[in-house]
Specification:
107 residues, alpha+beta, 4 strands, elongated
């Protein structure tokens, strides 16, 4: 299983678009504790990988992350990380090269 922010220069089938979101509340004692974003990124990455495995994907490509600080009038601030990417699966080489010479499969 892999995850990349780039594309993939290899034959693949798209399994679907996956999304995940994680958030946490900033405490009033530490209203600028933005290092909490690090844990949220890790949480979102784990959620995306879990979804990819459940969709029988071999990996995720074009993964992107958005961050947001949500401010409420009456409540404290929330940190939000949203991630999304394309789940892909590699075709079975044995099925692909059925009856073809070895060099034809490599092209």
């Amino acid at each position: 299983m892999f995850m990349t922010t780039g594309g993939l220069n290899r034959t693949h089938a798209i399994q679907g678009i996956l999304t995940a979101t994680a958030s946490t509340m900033l405490r009033s004692e530490k209203p600028d504790e933005f290092s909490l974003f690090d844990g949220l990124f890790e949480e979102v990455k784990q959620q995306l990988m879990k979804q990819a495995q459940e969709n029988q994907a071999d990996g995720l490509i074009e993964v992107r992350f958005n961050t947001e600080v949500v401010r409420m009038n009456v409540a404290p601030k929330f940190l939000v990380v949203h991630g999304y990417g394309t789940a892909v699966r590699f075709p079975d080489v044995k099925k692909l090269n059925k009856g073809l010479p070895f060099y034809a499969v490599l092209v």
